Amino acid sequence: MKTNKEWAKKVRTILAKKDKNQEWLAVQVKQSPAWLSQRMTGRTRCSIQELGIIAEALNVAATELIGTDNSLYSQVEQEVASIMRDMTADEIDKALNVLRALKN
Length: 104
Prior knowledge:
434 Repressor (Amino-terminal Domain)
């Protein structure tokens, strides 16, 4: 899958810059090296939540891994929009505050 290849390449680049490897990353995300390998090679699709965990372990923004011009970013946007449809204005304000706090 193209998206997996793109983010996996970015992860490999970040790992190389940090002088780390996939085994190190697997430990950081509390998964087996086989689990990570399956996602990095595209054999198993990586969920949005898993990408977030990987990004956090690498100390980078998730958008740095997935970019903003691919289908995964669109999937995140659609999921957020779906959740927000049923929210009150107060709930939306609280959700935005949580997102801002997470960013900082």
